[in-house]
Here is the input.
Amino acid sequence: MQYAKFAHVYDALMKDVPYEQWIGFILERTAVPKGAETFDAACGTGSALLELLKRGLKGTAMDISEDMLQIASERIQSAGKRARLVQGNIAHFSLHRPVSLITCVCDGVNYLINPQEAQSFFNCAYRFLQEGGALAFDVSGRYKLEKILPGNLYYEDDEDITYFWQSSYKDKLCSMELTFFVKQPNGLYERFDEIHTQRAYSLSEIKGMLEKSGFTRIESWDGYNNQPANENSGRMLFIAYK
Here is the structure.
C-alpha cells in the first residue's frame, strides 16, 4: 500500500507546518464566504482540510493514499466535522459540481513529477471551479530543491520517532531518501525507508501552465507572506482565479 507506513509518521514530520496560518492567508485573499464548497487536493492526513472546515466551509478532499485518508477521516470525526474523502490521483480528479476554492498545500504539485500531470491538474482545477473561484497551491521552489536540499543531511531525534533525510538532484528532480526509526509498543524501534521525488518547477513555468489552462489573473507570493514570489523563493504560493 503506497505510503502505508509513512502515513503514520507524516504528522510528526510535518508538526511545524503552520496550517492555520496558511489557510488563513489563503482565505483572507480569496474572500471565500462561509458555507462555500471547497476541494483540498493531496490532502494527506487532513490538516489543511480541517482548517477549512473550522472556518465554516464545506469540504471534499482527495489523496492517493488510503492510509492518509483513514487518518484524515478519524481526525475530522474527532473534531465533530464532516467531509467527503476520495482516494485518487489529483492529476485526473473530477467533482460532482464546481466549487469556490481548490487548495493544494505542502508540495502536492511538486509530487506531480511529470509536467503533463501538473498541466492536467491545472486543467481539472479550471474546469471544476466556479466563475470567480480560486485555485490556491504552494510548491517548493526550484532554488530550494536544486541548491539548498541536495548534499545536506537533516535529522530529528524524538523519543518515539527518529528520522534522517538526505537529498540528491538531477534533471529537475529532487530525490529525498528518508530513514525512520519508530518506537513500537514493546519498546523496540522499527526501521523503514522511503524515497520521495519532487519536480522543481520554476515560477515562470508554473505561470505558463496556469495560463495554458485558462487562468488569466494569477498571483504569486513568496511563501505565505505579503511579498511577491521570485525564482529564489524557497516556497511559492500561487492563487489563480477563474
